[in-house]
């Protein structure tokens, strides 16, 4: 009976975490370059169950008998980020950039007193008062020559990420890709950090005057939210039924 309570509770906790992830996806549906997360669940390790203290055929010595294998519930195995490309929206803004292909912009993010390299698909860039190319959160965009500082004038960026101002070459946006995307971890501000994976050259192309939308499908997310809610409610009812049965055993068994 106690085992059933834990099994039902594990199902509720897994769906609760799934609801959190779905809610975060829906909240970022309009975030440029956002990649949706998905919850991967797995069952706990199966255990061999046995019948204990069984004395068949009037025997004096109790024997154990294998019944079968049983799992004690589910758990969240991992939260997987889906890096499928989102749709491209034309903005006609010279500093709006979108990547067609599997790659990332490199930016410098301040962490404490240090500036460290991080990666993003969000190409909604601006110029700060010093003419430095930055993200909407103020992270500095990295070029082949370091931080990108642009003079005044008409800005043109080609498919290789090369930046020209009034026809003169200034710098090239530093673009990278990764062989194993599972090594990338979200750290907030639409940024990613790479753990144990070296950046590779970007093989796609840069589109000036476009932004990449998030790859969240709101209809699919709503369907998954309803499904998670129903599974949560089913596990909750199972837990309540077992709790009521246990209460009845405790309160009434001694009266018989």
Summarize the structure.
By secondary structure, this protein is an alpha+beta fold.
Structural summary, described in words:
The chain is built from two helices and 21 strands. The chain is an alpha+beta fold and 256 residues long. It folds into two domains: 2-81 and 218-255, no CATH class; 88-212, no CATH class. The longest helix has 35 residues, at 218-252. It is elongated, with a radius of gyration of 28 Å. The two termini are 20 Å apart. The mean pLDDT is 87.
List keywords for this structure.
six-stranded antiparallel β-sheet, single chain, 2 domains, 256 residues, 2 helices, alpha+beta, 24% helix, elongated
How are the SSEs placed, and which strands pair?
Elements (H helix, E strand, L loop, with lengths): L1 H26 L9 E7 L3 E8 L8 E8 L3 E8 L6 E3 L6 E4 L3 E8 L2 E7 L5 E2 L5 E2 L5 E4 L2 E2 L7 E3 L4 E4 L2 E5 L2 E3 L6 E5 L2 E4 L5 E2 L3 E4 L1 E3 L5 H35 L4
Antiparallel strand pairs: 1-4, 2-3, 5-21, 6-20, 7-8, 7-11, 7-16, 9-10, 11-12, 13-14, 14-15, 16-19, 17-18
In N-to-C order, the SSE pattern is HEEEEEEEEEEEEEEEEEEEEEH
Give a short account of the largest sheet: 6 strands, antiparallel
Query: What is the rounded Rg?
Result: 28 Å
- Give the amount of beta strand, in percent: 35-45%
The structure class reads alpha+beta
- Shape descriptor reads elongated
Round the mean pLDDT to the nearest integer and report it. 87
Q: List low-confidence stretches.
A: none
Q: How many domains, in number, for the residues? A: 2
Please give the number of β-strands.
Answer: 21
Helix count?
A: 2
Distance between the termini: 20 Å
Helix content: 10-25%
